[in-house]
Amino acid sequence: MTVNIWTAADVARKVIDNKELFILDVRNADAFADWKIEGHKFNYLNIPYFELLDGVEEILPQIPTDIEILVVCAKEGSSIMVAELLAEAGLEVAYLEGGMKSWSMYIEPVKVGELSGGGELYQFVRLGKGCLSYMAVNEGEAAIIDAVRFTDVFIKFAEEKGVQIKHVFDTHLHADHISGGRHIASQTGAAYYLPSKDAEEVVFDFTPLTDDLTVKLGNSEIEVGALYSPGHTIGSTSFVIDKKYLLTGDILFIDSIGRPDLAGLADDWVRDLRQTLYSRYRSLAEDLIVLPAHFMIIEELNEDGTVGKRLGDLFVENHGLNVEDEEVFRSMVTDNLPPQPNSYEEIRHVNMGKVTPSNEEQTEMEIGPNRCAVR
Amino acid sequence: MVKSDVQLDAKGLACPMPIVKTKKAMNEVAEGQVLEIQATDKGSVADLAAWSKTVGHQYIGSHEENGVFYHYIRKCNPEVNEAVEKTFEHTISNEEALNGKGLILDVREAAEYTFGHIPGAKSIPMGELAERLTELNKDETIYVICRTGTRSDLAAKQLAEEGFNNIYNVLPGMTGYEGELQKEVE
């Protein structure tokens, strides 16, 4: 049998189309437990490649013959070796080109919906890392929110749409992934906005993102309006686009809420987080569609591959919005937090412009899940 | 420099080659000896440790120097039970040895000592003991320690036969030691 090669884009299609897949992950057990390719209907077997150096015979009974098989490792070398052994044993298998490294970097643009007057809103789903970025386009102009570091994805997309990037926003100073915001802005001549309260240590120029700041896209005046919503960081700001969509950054997710501790100030920021979630957001229209900057689990994906839900529904279904007692809430978001994201302090320094690591080093820093939420 | 018996150059090789080469190289290493692997692949750090555990070798540690990872693995024979009977009659617990007035003599391989030893312990690997007896005082109290008490048992017997009077085998040995570790590498 031959060995097939799948790209990260091929795997993304399987996730979004709800396909079945059997993943043989040959990384070591710790790496697998920490982070893997998530799909609604994916099954997994984790056997480190170094246990298969003498052959794959022993694991053959554990590998199904009726669904597609993908061998995955960190970079691809070991998955090629194992895939070839499986092919020699008569199985039809594929390996993931570039391994988990390429999975971590892959981005799938998905259309969220129409804006009034012919505009469109796109969500850029980085499946491997759970990062969500946004681009609103209308009448030749675009605004980008929470761009990840692969700037060419956004710039090329804007070119294909024939729009000029005018405004680039970050809802807050990110700690789990490296922002592409200021680089896109400098390459395209757009304005780059960052909340001043998150930017005290930032070493580059930016436009302060203030509460109530509004920009318009095109002549038909699609509004992108800022709403100060602290709690994940002290500067965290949400956006309301076209009175229809609420971009919540890392404050509110579909099945979880933001964590206040990644800048080391959990106790100080709990009150802000509570106020944003239980009072500021409560005063907004319940029909707004919440579009967060992350998803944590694959169940948060909608059928069409987007991540978003009506605010009114989240008030009912999201556990983090239904903790009556303030003390219980405080304890939930400060005491029982998941591990912090990989290299989060270093990543904050990169986003402040204090250090500029090589591409390879940036990839290394971003490996692993994002862990920005409290469930 | 960390001392090792056999060296393997796996620099520039991507996964899975560092482990493929290590597995092969291990065939040439005698039991109890230490293999040094030089690798540039970052993934080698977690994988060599996990592989060693899987096959039953002792992963001693690794350190990085100018982008090269130096790994140290001591070959063990998984067929042989670690809990070999210890026959030297004078034994002492880790705690008593640490609180005692004698010299702690660490008879593990130099690389094992380098990656973490009891502060103040003296290193003489068991294989070098016979030729380095003059470094020790026959009337001093000596607590002989290794990883699990097996090598120190042999070393203690050897010392007693050479006329040392106050020798104790420390049990359970470094595997049961949770105190401060002094390291000779970063």
From TrEMBL, chain A:
Picking any one GO biological process from the record gives: hydrogen sulfide metabolic process
InterPro entries assigned to the protein according to its UniProt record, in alphabetical order: Metallo-B-lactamas, Mito_Persulfide_Diox, POD-like_MBL-fold, Rhodanese-like_dom, Rhodanese-like_dom_sf, RibonucZ/Hydroxyglut_hydro
* Superkingdom of origin organism: Bacteria
Pfam families registered for this protein in UniProt: Lactamase_B, Rhodanese
Cite the Gene3D superfamilies for this sequence.
Answer: Rhodanese-like domain (3.40.250.10), Ribonuclease Z/Hydroxyacylglutathione hydrolase-like (3.60.15.10)
List, in alphabetical order, the Gene Ontology terms for molecular function in this entry: sulfur dioxygenase activity
CDD domains, per database record: POD-like_MBL-fold
- Return the PROSITE patterns for the record: RHODANESE_3
Point out the coiled-coil segments of this chain.
none
All copies of the Rhodanese domain together span 17-112
The protein depicted here goes by the name: Glyoxylase, beta-lactamase superfamily II
Supply the source organism for this entry. Answer: Psychrobacillus psychrotolerans
UniProtKB/TrEMBL annotation, chain B:
Q: Which SUPFAM superfamilies match?
A: Rhodanese/Cell cycle control phosphatase, SirA-like
UniProt keyword Lipid metabolism, yes or no: no
Domain Rhodanese, by residue range, is 98-186
Q: Which Gene3D superfamilies match?
A: Rhodanese-like domain, TusA-like domain
> Which Pfam families is this protein grouped with?
Rhodanese, TusA
GO MF annotation terms:
thiosulfate-cyanide sulfurtransferase activity
CDD domains linked to this entry: RHOD, SirA_YedF_YeeD
This protein's UniProt keywords: Transferase
- Assigned protein family: Belongs to the sulfur carrier protein TusA family.
Protein name as annotated? Rhodanese-related sulfurtransferase
Organism in which the protein naturally occurs = Psychrobacillus psychrotolerans
